[in-house]
Amino acid sequence: MNEPTLAVMAAGMGSRFGGLKQVASVDDFGNAIIDFSLYDAKKAGFKKVVFIIKHEIEDAFKSSVGKRAEAQFEVSYVFQELDVLPEGFSVPEGRTKPWGTGHAVMCLLGAGTGPFAVINADDFYGAEAFDEIYRFLSGGRRDGEHAMVGYLLRNTLTENGYVSRGICETRDGLLTGIRERTHIEKDGDGAVFRENEDTYALSGAETVSMNFWGFGSEILETLWTRFAAFLAKELAVNPLSCEYYLPSIASAIIDEDLGTIRALRCDAQWHGVTYKEDLPDVKAAIARMRKEGIYPERL
User: Fold this and answer.
1) What is the bridge-based pairing of β-strands 116-120 and 207-215?
2) Confidence check: pLDDT of 153 > 70
3) What residue segments make up the domains of the chain, in order of their start?
4) 63: number of CA atoms within 13 Å, CB side?
5) Does the structure show a pLDDT above 80 at 18?
6) How far apart are CA 16 and CA 236, in angstroms?
7) Is residue 14 predicted with pLDDT exceeding 60?
8) Which terminus of the chain, N or C, has fewer Cβ atoms within 10 Å?
9) What was the pLDDT predicted at 30?
10) Distances in whole angstroms, Cα of residue 161 to Cα of each of 23, 31, 157
11) What's the chain look like in SS3?
């Protein structure tokens, strides 16, 4: 069997959080959110992990999260840097913003991952999600078959500001459409999203992507090819802040009949540290889960 790999996107420095949130401790033992994801991934069956990081955080990351992961997994690293670009392109003068989640994943090309799951380092997904994606990746999927773990929007919001989410449409267990909304705020039991100067209501029951995907390695060539087309278009109008998002590739797979994306439902409560003010809530949630026996005292 071509053993699935877990790919962890950890290159972002966390501008809204105000620091290196990938290694921020969320318990009394120095564990970060990613340590709980790795615990759940190990239980689900994953044996290999590749971290997508920047050279800027390499030492801090390897000496903390990386060191702990190496005791349990076959660990490797790839680097997402601004100058990792298709031939013929260069970094625009003044550009400091990363190129986005699609760019992060395409950096895996050449890493020999085979089928892989991809997650954010600073999102708490829950054990159910890792079980679902591992079964999909290891269950005899064919080329062109991919998957996404979807969450209820109301389970993924923070009290402390706005978030970005991919709003999903599904039919017969498959993803049929996804729209990236970059400014969603909690509003009672529901939410609102803002676009330009307009505000739109959301019920909270929508299925959203939290960047938990399961891909075959064949997607990496597609990511590279489409990134060149993206740059050719976007650099002319938004050179300093345009971003290449994973949902845009999901949309291309669907719209151009390049494959299918299974929509795997997860009813778990998301936890994350988008903002520093989120950290006490995450710590409290993890303490509750330990008390309920979901996690041991020491991972």
Assistant:
1) antiparallel
2) yes
3) 5-142+209-255+277-291
4) 4
5) no
6) 27
7) no
8) N
9) 87
10) 21, 25, 9
11) CCCCEEEEECCCCCCCCCCCHHHCCCCCCCCCHHHHHHHHHHHHCCCEEEEEECHHHHHHHHHHHHHHHHCCCEEEEEECCCCCCCCCCCCCCCCCCCCCHHHHHHCCCCCCCCCEEEEECCEECCHHHHHHHHHHHHCCCCCCEEEEEEEEHHHHCCCCCCEEEEEEEEECCEEEEEEEEEEEEEECCEEEEEECCEEEEECCCCEEEEEEEEECCCHHHHHHHHHHHHHHHHCCCCCCCCCCCHHHHHHHHHHCCCCEEEEEEECCCCEECCCHHHHHHHHHHHHHHHHCCCCCCCC
Q: Please give the biggest Cα pair distance in the chain.
A: 55
206 Cβ neighbours under 8 A, 6+ residues apart: 152, 153, 167, 168
Average pLDDT along the chain: 91
Question: What burial class does residue 258 get, using C-beta atoms within 10 Å of its C-beta: 0-12 exposed, 13-18 middle, 19+ buried?
Answer: middle
- Residue 49 pLDDT > 80, yes or no? yes
Determine the pLDDT at residue 21.
62
- Is the CB of residue 2 less than 8 Å from the CB of residue 113? no
The answer to whether the CB of 14 falls within 8 A of the CB of 22 is yes
For residue 225, CA distances in Å to 41, 61, 98, 237 come to: 30, 30, 18, 20
Task: State the sign of the Cα–Cα–Cα–Cα dihedral 117, 122, 123, 127.
Answer: positive
- What integer pLDDT is reported at residue 19 of this predicted model? 57
Is residue 15 pLDDT above 60, yes or no? no
Question: 0.70 cut: is pTM over it?
Answer: yes
* Mean pLDDT of all residues in 81-105: 95
Tell me which residue has tokens 């795997």: 264
The answer to whether 244 and 102 have CB atoms below 8 angstroms apart is yes
pLDDT surpasses 70 at 44: yes
- Asked if CATH classification 3.40.630.30 holds for the domain at 5-142+209-255+277-291, the reply, yes or no, is no
